[in-house]
Predict the structure.
Amino acid sequence: MSPSRASPRRSTAAGGAALVALYDIETATTQEARGAAATARSELARLETDLAERDAALDLSAEVAGALRAYAGVEAIVASVELVLRRLGAVDVALAPYMAGQVVLGRSARGMLGPDMLTVAAHPDLATAVRDGEIATLAPEAAAGLEIPEGLGALVVPATCAGEPLGLLLLVFEGEPALGSGALRALATLGTALGLALMQERLLTDEPGGGR
């Protein structure tokens, strides 16, 4: 569009000379520039958030790796789960070993869950997480089916080793969990690490004289 200004209007002040007022009209080009600037600011904010989440996820992964090096078996698992509970802002967390189509849910870190034994086939979200080996996000309505207190959502993180499901990490949050991609990648890595720890614990238990 061409002109950026409207025709002037004349008015006369009381007892004075004529006044001229000019009004700016925003062109299509200016509107497009404003829109592009707003989009760029939004994208920059998103990238800053992603970078912050990535850094936090890397820190968490490093801490968990340190705990797994410092401890073995059950101690390593407990230390790792406590780290996740503190760093991700969860209100409770539990690791439930998987065996013969069921997960054995012991008492959770904050006592909100368990003890219980859940048949995986009876809970579609758990079944999908076990089958696909992928993290499942449960809104409060879905989490209620796992006897998670009302108003709380959950993340279900499979703990696997060589493709074999060995357990599920359940993280409880206020409302529906809303973690970024960086935190979810860290949890997927943690699931693999916990799977290795569970396999180690299983091998130790199965050794002659190692039963408990």
User: Anything to note?
Assistant: The CA atoms of residues 159 and 191 lie 4 Å apart.
